[in-house]
Amino acid sequence: MSNTEIEIVVDDPTAPEPDSPPVADTRTVDVIVSLLLLALAAMLGYDNWRTGISWDSTGPQAGYFPFYLSVILGGASLYGIVTTVLARAEPSETFVTRAQLRRVMAVFVPTLLFCLAMQFLGLYVASFLLIAAFMRIVGKIALWKSLLTAFVFTAIMFVTFDIAFDVIMPKGPLEAAFGR
After folding, report:
1. pLDDT tens, residue order, the chain (180 aa)
2. Per-residue DSSP letters for 79-139?
């Protein structure tokens, strides 16, 4: 038996179950994304039209190139909608199952909360909370290891950005208490 015939199969114990019910199919997601991009293109097109899309004595106005890029984006979005609607006879594939969506939300929701917390707590405290929570809840790592790793990483970030490179980062009440 040659080495090319050897197959190694490794099961992922955290993989989503294969019999999970579908949440959305590919066709629906294609149409929704195309509609969102079309709305974005219309908004950008209007804003750039308002700014100015013609030529003046010094050359193109500020909205000239972005306006035409938004026209191209709008055309591509319309093309996506039309081709998706015309392909209705073909069966659509599952885009995401319930188990897959649950795994995505397990990362998306804490990240969204991190972005919101950063506005009030500052970058470093919010980063500490995010790292510690991810390690503890998602990674199922011991609490002391999660807290220690989050503290060390946040401290390194603080020393690197705030002290060594003097980069302005979002500060919260804790950093203000230390006078930074």
Report:
1. 556 667 766 666 666 677 889 899 999 999 999 999 999 999 999 999 999 999 888 989 999 999 999 999 999 999 999 999 998 777 888 999 998 899 899 999 999 999 999 999 999 999 999 999 999 998 899 999 999 999 999 999 999 998 899 988 888 888 777 766
2. HHHHHHHHTTTSPPPEEEEHHHHHHHHHHHHHHHHHHHHHHHH-HHHHHHHHHHHIIIIIS
Total-model pTM: 0.69
Residue holding tokens 């002290």?
A: 163
Contacts of 125 (CB under 8 A, 6+ apart): 117, 154, 172, 174, 175
Tokens of 24: 């959305």
